[in-house]
Amino acid sequence: MPNFEYKVVPAPNKGLKGKGIKGAEEKFANALASVMNEMGAKGWEYQRSDTLPSEERSGLRGKTTIFHNVLVFRREIATEETAASKSEAPAMAATADEPAENTAPLLFSRSAAKETSNAPALGPAIDAVEVKDPRIDSDAQQSPVDFQRQSVNPSD
Description:
Elements: E1 4-10, H1 24-41, E2 45-58, E3 62-76, H2 80-94, H3 110-116, H4 144-152
Antiparallel strand pairs: 1-3, 2-3
């Protein structure tokens, strides 16, 4: 699975003049397109635009919430694993007519966990031991219901 890094840049506030561009909407679209093309030339893929809140100081003690428009870009991080998977892609395409049983990567193996884990196995309690209340005489052990009745009705 590829890993990505993300970059968030502020969206332009003003339009950008250009040849043959008239009107505020066209100027704003030109400014937005120039930011997107500039980032695309650097290898960043446009994902989305967001409006996010930001709490900022207002005066000495006050705080106000201001909303900022941002553009989100991403690009794939080149790792050894992704480079190896790209080189294996043609080999996998050659055997595409054969059904693959489980194509998802195996992140956790139960057999490996049993070998390396020091945790006790989970299951039913086999060695259960009856615990008696030490505050009560062992000869006159009371049931929990009788004990509750005595504590609720102290006049008896």
